[in-house]
Each structure stands twice: as C-alpha cells, then as structure tokens.
Design brief:
It comes from Conexibacter stalactiti. By secondary structure, this protein is of the alpha+beta class. It is about 35% helix and about 20% strand. β2 and β3 form a beta hairpin. The longest helix is centred in the first third of the chain and has 13 residues.
Length: about 150
C-alpha cells in the first residue's frame, strides 16, 4: 500500500501506549517497552516525521462547556457536485467536529456539537444551503461510548 511505513512490535507498543495516554513521559514509555528513554524518544520523533503520529489531542467533555447537543448530519449532494466542497465547508464551521465522505447513501457525514436546538438548526441550515447540497438528514445523538486503547 502506498504511503505505508515499516514499524516493529516496539513501535506498535509505543503507539498503543500513546493512544491510551499521550501525556505519558518518554521515561515512563521507555520502562513499559524495556528500552532506555533516548531510543524511545528517537522512535517517537521518527513516527511523527513519518506521519504515523499525526498529532496529540485532548478529549473534551463538551457538555461541561455548555455544548451538550451532539448530532450527525447526513449530507446528499447533486451528482455533478464536488463532495470535497462539503468537507471544506464543514472545516469552516465551529460546530463541525469531524466530517467524512462515504460510499453509498448519504454522500457525507458531519458530526456537530452545539449548545442547543437553535444552534443545531443554524448549523444544519448552513449545510443545507451550501452549493450542491440537495438534502440533509439529522441524527441526534442520545448516548455514546468510545473504545479506549488498552480497555477490555
């Protein structure tokens, strides 16, 4: 597969540890994989350079910030429309957290996080009125879970 990089079992172990807690120190990671900190630091730097580690992020509880309404917008576009335009539009919307183009029906999914129903209405209307969009369907999230690395 084009663009793939070669990794070994130690790299995979480091990636799993970083997925579970990206704030772990290099010294702690080194203890876990039975190496000294210097080679672990070099491995992490290499994985970052190669794009295997694309970044680090914090998981935020949006409801604590008054943004407790989450929804997915299914977006359908005209046959001659550029689906990439939906991703570009979503990238400009502060309510949009993620966007995916997908095979089948719909053409794209946009995950939205807003404060209330009015915020959701505005975000959906922004998507709905964009060039090439023929319809949207909104799915309100009632509950969720996320698989955490290392969890059984």
């Amino acid at each position: 597969m084009a663009g793939t990089v070669s990794v070994d079992d130690v790299d995979l172990a480091l990636l799993e540890l970083l997925r579970a807690d990206a704030r772990r120190s290099v010294a702690d990671l080194a203890r876990e994989v039975n190496l000294s900190p210097a080679p672990v630091g070099r491995r992490i730097a290499r994985l970052e350079r190669q794009g295997v580690i694309a970044g680090y992020t914090a998981l935020v509880n949006e409801s604590k910030l008054g943004r407790g309404v989450e929804a997915f917008a299914e977006v359908r576009v005209r046959g001659d429309a550029d689906i990439a335009a939906v991703l570009e539009l979503a990238a400009t919307m502060p309510e949009a957290q993620e966007a995916f183009t997908v095979a089948g029906d719909p053409d794209a999914l946009v995950r939205l996080v807003v404060a209330d129903a009015e915020g959701l209405r505005r975000a959906i209307n922004t998507l709905r009125h964009s060039d090439g969009v023929v319809s949207t369907r909104t799915l309100l999230v009632l509950g969720s879970w996320r698989r955490r690395p290392g969890a059984a």
